[in-house]
Amino acid sequence: MGRCKSEIDSMRNEIQVAKIVSIAKLAGKAILNIYHHADFSKVVDFKTDNSPLTLADKAAHQVIAAELEKAYPEIPIISEEGADVPYEQRKDYQEFWLVDPLDGTKEFIKRNGEFTVNIALIENGSPVLGVVYVPVKDLTYYGQVGGGAFVSEAENDPRPISVNNKQHQRIAVRSKSHPSPEEEVVLNEYQVVESISRGSSLKFCMVAEGKADIYYRHGPTMEWDTAAGQAVVEAANGKVLVGTGPEPFIYNKSSLLNSSFLCLGF
């Protein structure tokens, strides 16, 4: 049975961002235990699509799943490293957690530190809460749509962040591991004069923080790759669109594979 809107709103109000941040940090600790101490030749495996999987992905998933189930047992979880949830089962989900326990596995393997823990709450197909945690820097980006976006480092007080709304001389943020020539066409249309490179969901965070103005992704991603970052961007008054727009980017599709998307800070 689906929940009525008032029940969903009540549940949302009870969910504390601080709790989700704490869960992301616990997962980050599990990741760093492997990142700093493991023999990488023994922790990296490959999925059926030849994408890398590490013991850190699995360890972070176990932490997040256990903590979310304990804190919010009534809300289902879809995680990259969890069991597949058939569309027939999840199509009626009005709210669920969408989790990427370690976003940027290639960055993890390269040891460049640009990987994140992503936890998002999806309501009626839209991300309404997102936490993106950067374990190596103990840096947290988080946002709740309608409640603003913030960044905090270690134990310092969080500070609010917002998109630039820049109308010219724009800066693009681009992928370290997945560049594409199709980006050039889109970025030229938006008067981009400079580019920076980041891994994982940090690209969304750069737009949310106003350090970049546009992020276009032509290649495929999965829903768990983008949900938390989109929530932070939209809480910071940005937007994420299907393809090159104008339709909003939505979740819990029959296939969890994303199309191309455009993230704008204006």
Write a structural description.
- This protein is α+β, with helices and mostly antiparallel strands and 266 residues long.
- The chain has 2 domains: 5-161, Fructose-1,6-Bisphosphatase, Chain A, domain 1; 170-264, D-Maltodextrin-Binding Protein, domain 2, CATH 3.40.190.
- Helix content is 34%, strand content 28%.
- The chain is built from 9 helices and 14 strands.
- The protein has helices at 5-14, 17-37, 40-43, 55-71, 87-90, 105-110, 182-189, 202-208, 223-235; strands at 44-46, 52-54, 77-79, 95-103, 116-123, 126-134, 139-144, 148-153, 159-161, 170-175, 192-198, 214-217, 239-242, 261-264.
- The strands form 4 sheets. A 7-stranded mixed β-sheet has the order 3-4-5-6-7-8-9, with helices on both faces. It has a 3-stranded antiparallel β-sheet with strand order 12-14-13, sandwiched between helices. Strands 1-2 form a two-stranded antiparallel ribbon.
- Helix 2 (17-37) runs antiparallel to helix 4 and helix 8 packs parallel to helix 9 (223-235).
- The longest helix has 21 residues, at 17-37.
- The protein is globular.
- It starts with a helix and ends with a strand.
- The mean pLDDT is 91.
In short:
This protein has helices at residues 5-14, 17-37, 40-43, 55-71, 87-90, 105-110, 182-189, 202-208, 223-235, and strands spanning 44-46, 52-54, 77-79, 95-103, 116-123, 126-134, 139-144, 148-153, 159-161, 170-175, 192-198, 214-217, 239-242, 261-264.
